[in-house]
Design a protein that fits this description.
With about 260 residues, the protein is α+β, with helices and mostly antiparallel strands. A hairpin with a 2-residue loop joins β3 and β4. The protein is elongated and about 55 Å long.
Length: about 260
Amino acid sequence: MPELPEVETVVRTLRPAIVGRRILNAEFRQLRVLRGSAQDTMEALAGRKIKSIERHGKFIAIKLDKGFLVVHLGMTGKLLVNAEQTKWTHAIFTLDRGMLHYDDQRQFGRIEYGDELPARVAALGPEPLEVSLPEFTRRVKERKSPIKAVLLNQAVVRGVGNIYADEALFRAGVHPKRASAALGKDRIERIYNAMREVLAEAIESRGSSVSNYVDADGRKGSFQQAHRVYRRTGEACLKCGGVIKRIVLAQRGTHFCGTCQR
């Protein structure tokens, strides 16, 4: 699933291509990816001008001159500019200059139009690259779940997913099963700094292409080459030489080094 760095990269590549453009027509070929009525959404979008595009966690919020078009990429969703249509092209937005396609092989992504941001988006936790250390500490300490599960909780911070939770905890030297409420301030600060560091580095590398993720221009990211634990089960730890292990935690495959992470 595209996480914060991947969604941020998509937004950054979309911005120069679609901001200022006007939507002439919207077509939805697979209603599963659409929240709400297709007819109502098409009528609402026709003629709307795109004012800005921002990321809210893993959500893409396209602000129009009236309302918001919000997209969640799910597991395999792609927003592509002037791309060729495929059998997975489920939405087509014809602009006054160019086209915007939504492709989604597994169809877990969602598109939604509304006058305001959906309540579930507005209710997300703060951005991990913007939240202060005291606020992050408070949010972590009030949870009793394992720290890996807490980092994945979008009400705590928004946008962190499986890849970057694993990578941040490795850099911080914290075991993913550690109870959040029992963590000392030093460990929380290490997690905070590692989380922000790994997210910033991943954005700089245009995200991780471990599956079919590409940006709006169809280009892959390269941060997968810098992963230290994620999907490296059985390989040698790059820090201590031990074996990278995998367990299931919070219903997610979790990768860590039992020697480096205590």
